[in-house]
DNA sequence: GCATGTTGTAAACATCTGCTGACTTGGTGA
DNA sequence: TCACCAAGTCAGCAGATGTTTACAACATGC
C-alpha cells in the first residue's frame, strides 16, 4: 500500500517520470470521479481523493484551486460521457440500443456511474448550472429524435415524454449503483434492450395526439 | 424568525405545552426528513436540523441516540410513504394513476421528495438494509400487479421490467427535485398520467414472451 | 414546601475538513 | 556546475461537525 506512494503504475517502459504534473492531475481527476459518483460531493473529502490517487492533498488546491474546482472538472468529464452516449443526430431507432449499452457499461469507454455526477449537487452555483444545462440539452436531443422542434405545436407534450425517458435512464443507473437490486443490477445490454425498446417506442413513437 | 423559537405553531387554543417530548421529537423528524431529502445525509448537519426545527441540538442525541439514528427514523417514514403510494393489491390498471398522483405530490398526504430518502445512502449498514428491502419489496409489488409470481417461468424478465418502471418513478422524482427540468418539474398528475400509462402498458402488459 | 424525574439549555470536547504557507526535492538550461 | 523554477511534502490553522457533560427550568407526587 505504501510501497509506491507516487504513481499507480510504477513500471513505465521508456520513461518512468516521477514528477509529472499532467499525470498526477489525471490521477486526481480519476479518483475524484469515482469518489464523487459513489459518495456524493459532501460525502467525499479531499483527503479521501488524494489518498486514493496516491498523491499529496495540497496538490488538489494547486491543480484545481479548490474542492469545488475539482468537482467542476469532474463534471465536464461526465458531460462528455453523456454527449458520447447518444449521438446528437441519433434516430429514434438507435436510441434504445445506445441507452442499453451505455447504461450497462459495455460501451467503449463508458463509465455509467459518471452519469450520477449530473445528479449530485455540490451546492456550487456554477457547477449546478453546468448540470442543468447538460441534462436539459440531452433531453432536447432525445426529443429531437422523436420529431420535436422548437415551437412545435404540442412540443411540451413530446418534451415531457422525452424527459420521462431520460428519467428512466438516470433511475436505472441510480438503482444499480445505490441498491443492489436484482436482476436489474447485473442486467447486461442484451437484457436491457427489449424493455428499453418497448419503453422508447411507447413514450416517443406515436404518430399524433391520442 | 426568532420570535417563537420553541414551536412552529405558537397559537395552540387549549394548551400551548412548552415541554412536550413527543412534540419536539416530531419537529425534529419533520425537519430532518426535509433536510435529508434535499441535501442528502452528509450534506445535512445536526445543527441545520435543530435550527430548522427550532430545537436544541442536544435533543437529537437524546431522542434518536445519534445522527444515524435520526436518519433511520426518517427512513421508516419514507418506507411508509412508499407503501401507501401504491396499494399492495393494486391492479395493473390502477398503477399509472397512483404513480402519477404520488409523483406529482397531489396525493392526500403524499410528500414525493421523501422517496429520495430511499436513494440517499448514509453509509450506515442498518439504514442501507432498510433501503434495499423497501425498494425490493416495492418492485415485487409492481411485478405482482403484472402477473409475476415467485418461481414464475420467466419471472426474471417480468421483474426486470417492473424494476425499470420503478426506476422511472425514482428518476422523475430526482430530476424534478435536483434539476428544475421543465416541463417535467411542474407537470401535474394529469400531465404525467398519459405517458405513465403508455410506459406501464409497454413494460408490464404484454401477454407472453416475445 | 420539597424531593424527583423529565425537558430543555449552554458550553465544551475531540475530531474532521478544506485550505495555506514555508519548505524540500528534482529536473533543466546556461 | 549551479541558479532557477516546477513538482511535491509537511505541518498547521481556522472553522465545522457529532456528541457529551453539567446545569437550569418545569411539572408532579408526597
UniProtKB/TrEMBL annotation, chains A, B:
<keyword id="KW-0238">DNA-binding</keyword>
<feature type="region of interest" description="Disordered">
    <location>
        <begin position="1"/>
        <end position="22"/>
    </location>
</feature>
<dbReference type="GO" id="GO:0000976">
    <property type="term" value="F:transcription cis-regulatory region binding"/>
</dbReference>
<dbReference type="Pfam" id="PF00440">
    <property type="entry name" value="TetR_N"/>
</dbReference>
<dbReference type="InterPro" id="IPR036271">
    <property type="entry name" value="Tet_transcr_reg_TetR-rel_C_sf"/>
</dbReference>
<dbReference type="Pfam" id="PF17920">
    <property type="entry name" value="TetR_C_16"/>
</dbReference>
<dbReference type="GO" id="GO:0003700">
    <property type="term" value="F:DNA-binding transcription factor activity"/>
</dbReference>
<dbReference type="InterPro" id="IPR023772">
    <property type="entry name" value="DNA-bd_HTH_TetR-type_CS"/>
</dbReference>
<feature type="DNA-binding region" description="H-T-H motif">
    <location>
        <begin position="45"/>
        <end position="64"/>
    </location>
</feature>
<dbReference type="InterPro" id="IPR050109">
    <property type="entry name" value="HTH-type_TetR-like_transc_reg"/>
</dbReference>
<protein>
    <submittedName>
        <fullName>TetR family transcriptional regulator</fullName>
    </submittedName>
</protein>
<dbReference type="InterPro" id="IPR009057">
    <property type="entry name" value="Homeodomain-like_sf"/>
</dbReference>
<dbReference type="InterPro" id="IPR041678">
    <property type="entry name" value="TetR_C_16"/>
</dbReference>
<dbReference type="InterPro" id="IPR001647">
    <property type="entry name" value="HTH_TetR"/>
</dbReference>
<feature type="domain" description="HTH tetR-type">
    <location>
        <begin position="22"/>
        <end position="82"/>
    </location>
</feature>
Amino acid at each position: 500500500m505504501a510501497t509506491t506512494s507516487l504513481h499507480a503504475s510504477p513500471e513505465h517502459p521508456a520513461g518512468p517520470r516521477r514528477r509529472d504534473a499532467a499525470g498526477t492531475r489525471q490521477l486526481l481527476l480519476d479518483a475524484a470521479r469515482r469518489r464523487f459518483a459513489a459518495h456524493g460531493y459532501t460525502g467525499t473529502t479531499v483527503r479521501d481523493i488524494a489518498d486514493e490517487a496516491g498523491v499529496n492533498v495540497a496538490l488538489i488546491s494547486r491543480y484545481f484551486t479548490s474542492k469545488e474546482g475539482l468537482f467542476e472538472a469532474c463534471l465536464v468529464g461526465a458531460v462528455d460521457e453523456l454527449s458520447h452516449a447518444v449521438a446528437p443526430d441519433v434516430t429514434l431507432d438507435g436510441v434504445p440500443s445506445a441507452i442499453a449499452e451505455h447504461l450497462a457499461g459495455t460501451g467503449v469507454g463508458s463509465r455509467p456511474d459518471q452519469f450520477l455526477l449530473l445528479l449530485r449537487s455540490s451546492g456550487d452555483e456554477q457547477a449546478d448550472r453546468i448540470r442543468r444545462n447538460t441534462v436539459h440539452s440531452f433531453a432536447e436531443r432525445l426529443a429531437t429524435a422523436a420529431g420535436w422542434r422548437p415551437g412545435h405545436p404540442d412540443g411540451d407534450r413530446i418534451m415531457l415524454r422525452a424527459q420521462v425517458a431520460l428519467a428512466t435512464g438516470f433511475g436505472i443507473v441510480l438503482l444499480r449503483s445505490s441498491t443492489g437490486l436484482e436482476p436489474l443490477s447485473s442486467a447486461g445490454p442484451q437484457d436491457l434492450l427489449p424493455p428499453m425498446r418497448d419503453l422508447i417506442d411507447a413514450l416517443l413513437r406515436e404518430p399524433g395526439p391520442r
